[in-house]
Amino acid sequence: MINARQIRLGVLLTCISGIFSACQTPQSITTSPKSSTGSINNTIKPSDPTTLPEIIPRAEPLSKRGNPAFYEVDGVRYFVKSSATGYVERGVASWYGPGFHQEFTSNGEPYDMYGLTAAHKTLPLPCYVQVTNLTNGKQVVLRVNDRGPFKAGRIIDLSYTAAAKLDMLRDGTALVEVRAITPGEISPTPNDAIKPIYVQAGSFSNASNADRLVSQLRKNGYPQTDVFSDLVDGRSLYRVRIGPIPTVNQFDEVVTQLKALGIADARLASD
Does residue 21 have a pLDDT over 80? Predict the structure, then answer.
């Protein structure tokens, strides 16, 4: 996992127990960089990881480890969500494998690269998510039990088997949608019609503000910039989007260039 070794080797966390409480002694997310016991040591690489049966989400208590109010990595503070309910995000997924197999995850469990798990920066541990590859429509349900990835622009890190099921092992990354799944909930079925993918540079309630941003972006080398309008809760919303964007590399390039223009909250959009 990108920069995850910093956590496993003892990145210190700043924890709070309440809004007005004093700070506790900093703690590390994990206890040891290597697992020496547990069923994971008996895992066998599947001949075809894409045939591994899907997991069924189940109700679980929060882990005693890996769920501080917040923690810091490389000077960036991340606030852990109290619940995964309603979480949906689109962005770039990566995967992590051999270098972390059998090491402890952030909630203290051994990492099994052949299992169906994932790492997320802020979702509570454990929880379940459905990840959809937006370029091919493939989906997989995963159990989140680790923290990461900490590379800019990445929203989730997947196990080897999860990446295989989404057909992203070769490329290493993919444009995805991550949706929290509640135990007992029926997962949305794959959409056969893959929608074009865009970088959303801004969203406005005023059409004139959206038009001004479109003009600015076109002048700065983005001729494929348009306004997408729709109704949200009965109110008009005007979204400024660049694209379509066909690859992760192009997505990363556009987001980096937009930051240089002062647009720091660009994100992936596909509808």
Answer: no
